[in-house]
Amino acid sequence: MEIQVVSKDRDLSHLCAGILEEISQDQPWSLSTVSVEALCDSADLYIWDFQPNVPLPEHLGWTYSNLIVLAHRRDMADVPKLFGFEPNIVLKPVTRATLSALVGFAVSNQAAASLRNDRDQIFQSLIEANLKLQEYDQNRTNFLVRVVHDFRAPLTALSGYCGLLLGDPLGSLNENQREVIRRMQSSSKRLSRMASSMLQLSMERHTKRCPDLQRADLQKNLADTLHEMAPLARERRITITSELESCDGLYFDPAQIDQVLLNILDNACKFTPRGGSIDIHGYPFFWERRRGNNAFNSLPRERRISDTGEPNSYRLDLRDSGSPIAPEHLESIFEEYTSYAGGRDRSGGGLGLAICRMIIDQHSGRVWAENTDKGPMFSFVLPLRRLGSPQLAQLLSA
Question: Residues with Cβ < 8 Å from 60, sequence gap 6 or more?
Fold first, then answer.
């Protein structure tokens, strides 16, 4: 199956490729990013990043079964005028779930062409309902951004007052009082992080943020995270061990990776039983990107040595001694604002883990979860970038 993305946005192509890896593992496909002038009529699916006043090529025929248009709400009236019919529309800013649903349907249509007419009629009705839901979702997001922004100010002030009391300028405290205030400060910081995560997830749709890539020490980031999580670990009597191998060529945004480590470790501490353990291991790794998510579960560490002799990424595994994650939820726990209910819901309402995936995606990496014989394990990989490479120079200048 040939897919053409008509856009100048590299992030959109990266998103489409990630979606296709997940939904079309058994069907061969190719993805190319082209300009309007370079379009050809051989593609099975076109994903069109709509820009006003850009004319269509005359030699192409469109149907709503092979065309997905990404457009802002303000441009919705112009889309059918340009194409001559009502195509499948995804509202900008694009959400992964919505685009994945439409691309998945298009892929399945190609595999079952004989059912296309009946299914297209049904799907057209669903598209109209979906468009309305996207509008409602954008209104909800705008409201949420305003509310969360108002939450952050009093939470920051509360944390500051706790720090002021602990510093003794207002009078000395006994140890019991200090412990109570430390817990108050820890709780306020946790609420502040949740509010920041909600705001960042909401704003990410509207503003694209490029990570501030720099050569950094992941060991230092982990040490800072362990220091911040120490009170919660002590309270639950959780033993945390860590071993990170050194590696050259690791460039990342320290502030963002701090947030990833903090969210994953916080999730592990919440679901590790009292007296349990958390083990963290980081090492250079050979990442076979073309094999998708499932490649991680079966790929032995020695593969990078036997096949290439040189790793192309750095992998960090965090394994806890908590209960296994239901297999059907291993991917959904990273979805935004979703949960699978119950007292052992690892998603945390879709906040911490969703922000992890967003940040790792911005770093061109991958984050995932799996069950092991020693407990659930959360892992992420970050690509290694060699000094002097054109890709690194381009990212550092972005």
Answer: 39, 41
